[in-house]
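Example record

The entry below shows one chain as it appears in the dataset: sequence first, then structure tokens.
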Amino acid sequence: MQHRDVKEGDIHVIHDLKFMNIEERDAYEPKAEDLDKICLVVEPYGFFALQSVEPKKWSALSTVTVSLEDFEVYTKEQINTLLSKKIEAYNISSSEFKCGYTRNGKEVFGIEVDCGALPNNAIKSIPIPSYNANYNYWVDTTNSYSKTSNKNSIIPIPYVANQPYHVGIDITNGNIRIIPYSDRTVFTETKITLNYTKE
């Protein structure tokens, strides 16, 4: 393809005109034959196409046009207020938190319970903090775990394995019950996360 202003054998560059700055570009008086020509502006660096001669209008060669009117601008204080409201929406107290979804049309809450070490082949019962018999509780198995003091071994709770390594869990009469089938006291830190809906 032969460019209209480039003679055969000449080097073709993307721009037809070159200006050192925007002021120099704007001072140029284009002719009708300059319509759709491209200019290079050195400072700030960019390419522009002549969109119209009268009135004179150059358009930046860019796939994205950004205007401040496209954005909402906030002060630092407004941002801090918005962030505080977001934090408050998910943190109710030091123990209860909102999970951010609903179950059967009811908002789901959560609480992480520190259950200490796993027991020695005996059922361990831990009272649910602020237990309410009218709430519908279940174990969040994706966020419940136990680990050894040196952090070398971490297991999910419940831990489904062949006996004697299996560790079961249930909720009975306002208590979390951890049910091991052997001595699992090597696991010294156990966190059980409960989810629940309020009636």
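Notes for this example: The chain has two domains: 17-60, 91-197. The chain has a mean pLDDT of 84.
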